[in-house]
Task: inverse folding
């Protein structure tokens, strides 16, 4: 009876999550493109060899890592600041909290189009601003030095509310008397943050980090609409490259290889990030020492 | 004072880009090129008229997205509710392991699945069927939905169901008359999150649907954007952005409580 309740969901999950991964693993050892008439022919490790030598893949991988690292880092710092602000009591707080959620709820492609206009040279407000303060026109979406920053900006804008909400949920679980105890012992706000807030927020920071890191690594919608991967594929992500290979070059075997490699890499990155953060964020036991002399 | 400044900054950061789109959408083409100069004929509704009378008209995409969103949410809940209930009634270790697997699946960047799902759609001839998108959408939101609903079932006192069992209620009756009504807040949160996901989803809709009258809103927006970054009709874009944002802004304003509680309980217990 119980199995009967679980089975439909389990089946759907297997088909949609596990099925494609096995298919990629299999396809990555086959040639399957227009050249072979879209018929899968085993080609040993040729796809993987090509991947290792493919400069564009490694460039895209570097760009994706830069995008994910910078954007998730900025986002967590910003989210922590917003969460601390929204955790205090003041009039109109609930309204502000709702309004800050709006960027998160909008479809990525809708605002990617909006950002294209905001970063437009010479008509967008950012360009007006840089010319006004004397930096001159930066040509943000045309200069590879700046375009990736524009993608990070747009991503941070959209996803910070989500991270802030998770951290806020964490902040609200911290008992107020802990802070009072630190204050009584003469600790200032900085001590509170380092000894109480951060350690107790740790599981929430880890959760937000892992989730956002995995999602940022798979960035696709934003890049495709905002820059199309350009200029000169300087903002192309691995997901976008896999998409081009499948839908534009019709090389499914190689596309599957790229996706498989990305999947393995992002799993590794999440594990490494997890371990690193375990080390960086001070643990709970140290914070206890402050409270209990 | 200090706080008021920070809150102002936060609101400007969150809403500024949207307001800029709103402002742009009412600007005539001539005014667009000089956003800060004073021009006689600055205000116009022509962009909205163009977008709404285009072929297919813009509201078509909104209707398409609404249909996909509703059917995906329904399918997802129908599958996730029994599964979330059953997850508490299997051996403990198996249950913990399945929950871990679900968290992993929820974290997974689903965009990587597009190729496998595309082949799946081709094999079963599901391309260009709007409602067929509900299958991948319901499946992709399944991990989060099961976790959220499972938390809700966990919070119910077990005596409740035992009493109902003694009264001779069947599993279906207990489900229908006792359990479902009690976890309706969690179901509402889940439903809204699934709906938001389905409404916003892009890569799969992009690869499954090519017929221009069947596009969902995100794909239609991207297609309006075309391929060129230069010399594009930004007034029309801005009008489309505003029209595409309104339903979601309303959704967030109306349902902010279940949205927040859904995301939060996912984080606190997940």
Result:
């Amino acid at each position: 009876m119980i199995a009967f309740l679980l089975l439909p969901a389990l089946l759907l999950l297997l088909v949609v999550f596990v099925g494609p991964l096995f298919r990629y693993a299999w396809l990555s050892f086959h040639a399957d493109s227009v050249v072979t008439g879209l018929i899968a022919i085993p080609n040993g490790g040729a796809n993987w060899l090509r991947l290792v030598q493919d400069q564009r893949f490694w460039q895209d991988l570097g760009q994706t890592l830069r995008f994910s690292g910078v954007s998730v880092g900025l986002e967590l710092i910003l989210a922590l600041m917003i969460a601390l602000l929204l955790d205090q009591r003041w009039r109109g707080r609930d309204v502000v909290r709702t309004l800050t959620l709006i960027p998160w709820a909008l479809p990525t492609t809708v605002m990617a189009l909006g950002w294209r206009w905001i970063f437009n040279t010479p008509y967008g407000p950012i360009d007006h601003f840089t010319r006004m303060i004397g930096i001159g026109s930066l040509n943000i979406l045309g200069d590879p030095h700046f375009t990736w920053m524009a993608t990070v900006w747009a991503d941070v804008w959209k996803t910070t509310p989500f991270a802030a909400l998770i951290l806020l949920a964490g902040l609200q679980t911290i008992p107020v008397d802990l802070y009072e105890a630190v204050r009584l012992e003469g600790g200032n706000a900085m001590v509170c943050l380092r000894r109480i807030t951060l350690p107790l927020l740790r599981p929430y920071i880890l959760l937000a980090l892992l989730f956002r890191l995995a999602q940022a690594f798979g960035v696709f919608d934003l890049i495709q609409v905002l820059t199309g991967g350009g200029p000169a594929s300087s903002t192309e992500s691995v997901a976008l490259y896999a998409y081009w290979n499948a839908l534009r070059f019709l090389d499914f075997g190689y596309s599957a290889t790229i996706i498989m490699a990305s999947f393995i890499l992002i799993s590794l990155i999440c594990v490494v990030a997890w371990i690193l953060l375990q080390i960086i964020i001070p643990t709970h036991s140290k914070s206890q020492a402050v409270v209990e002399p | 004072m200090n706080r008021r400044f920070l809150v102002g900054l936060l609101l400007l950061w969150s809403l500024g880009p949207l307001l800029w789109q709103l402002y742009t959408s009412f600007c005539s083409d001539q005014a667009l090129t000089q956003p800060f100069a004073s021009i006689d004929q600055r205000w116009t509704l022509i962009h909205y008229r163009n977008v709404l009378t285009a072929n297919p008209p813009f509201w078509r995409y909104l209707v398409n997205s609404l249909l996909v969103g509703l059917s995906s949410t329904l399918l997802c809940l129908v599958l996730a509710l029994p599964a979330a209930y059953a997850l508490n009634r299997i051996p403990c270790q198996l249950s913990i392991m399945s929950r871990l697997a679900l968290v992993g699946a929820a974290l997974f960047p689903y965009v990587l699945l597009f190729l496998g799902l595309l082949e799946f759609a081709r094999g079963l001839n599901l391309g260009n069927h709007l409602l067929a998108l509900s299958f991948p959408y319901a499946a992709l939101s399944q991990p989060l939905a099961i976790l959220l609903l499972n938390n809700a079932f966990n919070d119910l006192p077990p005596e409740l169901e035992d009493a109902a069992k003694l009264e001779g209620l069947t599993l279906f009756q207990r489900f229908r008359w006792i359990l479902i009504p009690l976890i309706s807040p969690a179901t509402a949160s889940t439903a809204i999150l699934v709906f938001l996901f389905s409404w916003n989803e892009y890569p799969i809709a992009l690869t499954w649907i090519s017929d221009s009258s069947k596009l969902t809103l995100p794909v239609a927006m991207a297609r309006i954007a075309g391929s060129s970054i230069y010399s594009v009709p930004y007034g029309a874009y801005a009008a489309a952005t505003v029209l595409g944002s309104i339903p979601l802004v309303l959704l967030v304003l109306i349902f902010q409580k279940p949205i927040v509680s859904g995301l939060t309980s996912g984080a606190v217990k997940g």
Observations:
- Confidence is low (pLDDT under 50) at residues 286-293 of chain A.
- Chain A touches chain B through 89 residues (CB under 8 Å).
- The first strand of chain A starts at residue 30 and ends at 31.
- The domain at 54-291 of chain A is CATH 1.10.3720.10 (MetI-like fold).
